[in-house]
Design brief:
alpha+beta, two-stranded antiparallel ribbon, 19% strand
Length: 151
């Protein structure tokens, strides 16, 4: 394990969770958006994460943490693989006076539950905070190590 591996892991986690916070915030902000540039209601978005490996190829053995040469596979962190649109159908509400109402008087609203989105936002914020704590702990350990070496 290198000197900066802990910083890299925590930083990648913070970056990934920041993306997740931004996407969830956009979902909450557009929960009532009935018309977008593409036409139709806003589509909820979800973030897909993936692990990153540093200078190593995965071995042929699943769930193995070693490379084929027997060396430990160092993790580099987590990354955002993709931001995908939800496949959920829009919710139809009867509002005949609405400008986006169809011929039957129904308006298509995004299928976004603000309560679920708030829980997801809180979870992302707590994950971000956990990565900040890990980063700070690693920094404190390095600082104390340097103090010991100086003294």
């Amino acid at each position: 394990m290198g000197l900066f591996d802990g910083y890299d892991l925590s930083s990648s986690g913070m970056s990934a969770q920041r993306t997740r916070i931004n996407v969830v915030s956009a979902n909450i902000a557009n929960a009532q958006t009935t018309h977008t540039a593409d036409g139709g209601p806003y589509k909820k978005q979800n973030v897909v994460f993936e692990e990153m490996l540093l200078n190593a190829q995965k071995s042929s053995t699943p769930n193995s943490s070693t490379t084929t040469s027997g060396n430990y596979t160092p993790l580099s962190g987590v990354a955002v693989k993709n931001v995908i649109d939800s496949k959920a159908e829009p919710m139809m509400k009867y509002e005949p006076g609405h400008p986006d109402a169809n011929g039957d008087g129904y308006v298509a609203y995004p299928n976004i539950n603000p309560v679920v989105e708030m829980v997801d936002l809180i979870e992302a914020m707590r994950s971000y905070e956990a990565n900040v704590s890990a980063f700070t702990a690693h920094k404190d350990i390095d600082t104390k190590t340097l103090d010991i070496l100086k003294g």
